[in-house]
Structures are given as C-alpha cells and as structure tokens.
Amino acid sequence: MRASQYHLNTLKEAPAEAEVVSHQLMTRAGMIRKIAGGVYTYMPMGLKVLRKIEAIVREEMNRAGAIELLMPVIQPAELWQESGRWEQYGPELLRIKDRHQRDFVVQPTSEEVITDIARNEIHSWRQLPVNFYHIQTKFRDERRPRFGLMRGREFTMKDAYSFDRDETAAQASYDAMYAAYQRIFTRLGLTFRAVAADTGSIGGSRSHEFQVIADTGEDLIVYNPDSEYAANIELADAPCLLAEREPAREALEKRATPDAPKCEIVAEQLGLPLSRTVKAVVLATDPAEGPARLWLLLIRGDHETNEIKVGKLPGFGDGYRLATEAEIDSVFHCAPGYLGPVGLPPKAITVIADRTVAHMGDFVCGANEAGYHLSGVNWGRDLPEPDLVADLRNVVAGDPDPRGGTLAIQRGIEVGHVFFLGDKYSRALNATFLETDGKPAVLQMGCYGIGVSRISAAAIEQNHDDRGMIWPRAIAPFEVVLCPIGIGKSDAVREAAESLYLALQAQGVDVILDDRDTRPGIMFADWELIGAPLRVTLGDRGLKEGIVEIQARRDDQAQRIAQADALAYIL
Ligand code: ATP
Ligand code: MG
Ligand code: MG
Ligand code: MG
C-alpha cells in the first residue's frame, strides 16, 4: 500500500465524548467514525485490523473442528418466544416490526436460530458432535454505549454453538473451545487470563471468560498467581469503578427516573456479610414486577469515616441516579482501607446498576447455579454456596487463598466467553436426535462468543503510550511503515524505499510506503499514533553510509541496520 493512494486522515484531538483511550486513539487515527451512539463505520484501517482478528479466529475455529455458516441478523420473534427470551431479555434486545406488523429482533446472539437449525438438520447420533459458528454483526441496545468499540451497540462477534449426545461429550466440546480460545488470544499477541464467570442472560451452568488484562478494564478479576484459580467479580455494570470520571457521573445523573417503583432491601435475608470486595449486598425487587427483575444497591462510600451508606431508593428504576443524604437509611462501618481496593475515590458516590435475575448470580454468588428460585421470594434459605461466594465474601488483594498462596486483583476486559448450556435451549425448542436405541434424546449444547470488534479496542487499552497505539504485529493495520525522508527530492531515497517496499511485499509483509512527501515530524507522529510495529526511515545521509533506521514502536532507540540486511531484519 502507498500512503498517497490510501485514505489517511488523522486528527489532533479526540472527540470530547471519548472517555477511554482506545476510543480516543481509534478516532484520532481515523480507524472508526461514529454514525450514532454505539454505532460506528469501520474506516479502512479499522477494517484491516478487524479482518486480521477475524482471520485468526476463523483459522483456529476451523482447526478445532468447528464449521462456519452464516445466520441472519434479523430473526423472527417466534423463535425468541419459544425459548422464553422474548419476555426475559429486556431492553437490550432490539425489536422491530415488518410492514405486516410481524415482530422480529436484530440478533444480539443466535442460540434460538442455531437450535432451530439443529432440530431441523440433526436427526441421528451419527451426525454428532457438531459445532457451527459464524462471524456476524450483533446489536445490543446497551444502556451505556460510550466506550467506542469496547461497548458498541452494533458490533462484530464470533459465536459458535456445539451440539452433543450427552453431557460428557458436551464437556469435551467445551474443553476443545477453551483450548482454541487459548490459542486465539495467544496468536493475537495479547496478555489475557481465563476466569470463572457468571452466565448472564445467555443462561447455562458452567462458563469461563477470557479477559484481556488492562487497567482500564470494566471487570475486576480475582486470581491466585500461583494456581489456576481466577474469577470475574464482574463489576462491568458498576460505574463505581468509573466514579472518578465526571462525564460518567453526569451521564448517570441524567438517567434519573424519579417515579420508579418502590424497592425492597433484602440484603439481610441473603445473609451475606459485607466484605472488602462485595461492598454491600443489597438487592431490591420491584413488587410490581415481582422477582423477575431486581435492582442492586446504591451506596455512598466514605474513606474518612470508613462508612458505607445504603439507601432505599424510591427512584431507582430502569436507570440510575445518585442518592441524596436524606435517602440514606443504613450505614455500615468497615475496616480502614476497605474502600481502597475497589478503587473508590474519597467520598465517591457509587451507583450499581440493575440486573436481571440471571445476572444476580454474579454479584451475589458469582454463578447462576441451578436451584436458584426466585418465585416466592425467600432468599435467605437454600442459597447455594459455590466456591465463589466464599471468595467474594473474603477476597481482597493480598489476602490468603484458602487453597494456598495469596490472592490478587486486576482489571480486565471480557473478550471471549464460553458457556456450557446443557439442554436449556434444546429442550425449549424440542431439538432432539435419535440415539443408538432409536429413542429420541435432547441435544446437549454449548455456546462460545468472541468479541471480534472489542478485541481491536482491548488490544489498544493494553498496548499504548502517550503518542498512540502499539499494535501486536499479528493484528496491526500495517506491520511495517517505510518513511522516506524527502522522497520528492532524492532519487536515492525513492529508489531505496521502492525496492525495499517491493521486496517486503513479495515476502507477504503488510507494508505501507509513506510517499506523501510530508515533513518527517508529521509522518512520524502519524505512524506513532497509528502504532505500526516497525518503522523504517530512509534518508540521504544514512543511505550514503549504506544504513537505514529501523524503529520498533515499543523501543526507545532506533536500530541502525545495513540497507542490505533490512529485509532479513524485518522478516
Ligand atoms: P459484557 O459483560 O461486556 O456486557 P457480555 O457478557 O454481555 O459482555 P456475551 O454475551 O458473553 O457478552 O458475548 C460474547 C462476547 O461478545 C463478549 O465476551 C464480548 O467480548 C463481546 N461483546 C459483548 N457485548 C459487546 C458490546 N456491546 N460491544 C462489543 N463487544 C461485545
Ligand atoms: Mg453485556
Ligand atoms: Mg459479561
Ligand atoms: Mg459474557
């Protein structure tokens, strides 16, 4: 690619609304352009990154035996009614009508459609196991689509769905996907961690998330550096971690819904004592809507007095607002330092979002375990106690892990999620096959998502400096940029640049020749912003000595390399 024939349009300033670094840098580099809240055009360089991520994901999915198909973006409501999610999904599901007033959804995920495919296509145990996947546009009407590609409303996901004869076989499919994900995130060049996770509104009983480690992540991970143990405390919907960011707070205040229904605090019945991680467990139900929907606490935390204040929130409905002092009706005292590890600034006001029932688990017990019945609300009894409950109660960085060693906490970005679904969807949609004895049996399922577009942003959150992005080579918009100094004036420079350019291209290197003939300062600033992993500078002075300068984006110093060795050095 030659820069003069490409579309480069870098900006000095990021839009004011861009709160996270990936959003700022992707916009400044011209990789994405916003068209509506949470909806972006992937500009040419953004699309290149996306395609490279897709290619790695596709290769590893195929290697793991999964089969690609492509399901539609628009799905009929009937399938969602069959599974029950038409009622359960809530406002994240975009519902539309066609000209005949028939209901459709814009898919946020594809369990229903694939289960419908399976019940029509799979008849016999001989066809199993099978794992179908696609890479497709998703739409989720996210409450706060404010982080660029990190949390878009329209975004690109790889989602795979496995079908098996029984639970043992389904577990093997799950394990194969888990292993494929390890390979995918390793090849993408990211530092990541697989963690035990909640199953959210997808449902099912077992799940792991793949988290890209980054201080700016919305999730909080508890892990033991000396063992396999790692879990997500999933504070993704808890803006407390962002409380220090004024724009976020303002946005929350704007969402106040003063006439929301009365809430009922049930923390005590839950019998969950406060810990440094679970800052306060207060669950609120709306008597009008019943237990199908619940809200979580709103707290004030105060470093000076070490107090956590919880208010019943008459105005806490389908939105957020900050409690006034007058609304505080319970005060919990906590040990000094309590408010530190979760990043609460002094006197911060913390707001925690509402959750659906399926999401209750991740706050209270970290998993949506079977047997969690909310009809007839008696939350204090028969509460399951998965390992995670104990961890959530007690865990804080530096505390001992009951299994040995000490626990640590870090922030992460959820980029992948594997679920063991069992027969949740296959039973609802009656997806069966004939077993060896000729009798019908219900298919066992798993589902496996990867946030393809989120990965591009997560890579930046993890790898950047004050000059711009630093791409892992595998997914960089360009692997190498050639920066000739004074290409318009010097034949030697032009010839050297052209010949290295052609040689790199011949070797399959994704190279761009910056032949715009701009000032070196402008050229360098652009490519540092864009984050090309390698920059080769060719100038008259160096060439006279037979030297080019190769600068790795991560390094402080450029390397002086003999012109004749440049190709080999880059490869
Ligand atoms: P989150 O907790 O961040 O809202 P999720 O748990 O709702 O994500 P899943 O249903 O597990 O998401 O979807 C699979 C993957 O799709 C996620 O691991 C994530 O990488 C990606 N993803 C989910 N929501 C978004 C979004 N709004 N924008 C970009 N990627 C997303
Ligand atoms: Mg979500
Ligand atoms: Mg999640
Ligand atoms: Mg998830």
Low-confidence stretches: 199-203, 234-303, 310-323, 332-375, 377-396
Mean pLDDT over the residues: 76
Helical/strand content category: alpha+beta
Q: What is the count of helical runs?
A: 16
Structural Rg:
26 Å
Q: Specify the overall morphology.
A: elongated
The distinct ligands, each listed once, are: adenosine-5'-triphosphate, magnesium ion
User: How helical, in percent, are the residues?
Assistant: 25-40%
According to DSSP, the number of beta strands is: 31
Distance between the termini: 18 Å
As a percent range, the share of strand residues is 25-35%
Largest sheet: 9 strands, mixed
Enzyme class: ligase
Subunit structure: Homodimer.
Protein name: Proline--tRNA ligase
Family: Belongs to the class-II aminoacyl-tRNA synthetase family. ProS type 1 subfamily.
Question: What tags apply to this protein structure?
Answer:
571 residues; single chain; 27% helix; five-stranded mixed sheet; 27% strand; alpha+beta; binds adenosine-5'-triphosphate; binds magnesium ion; nine-stranded mixed sheet
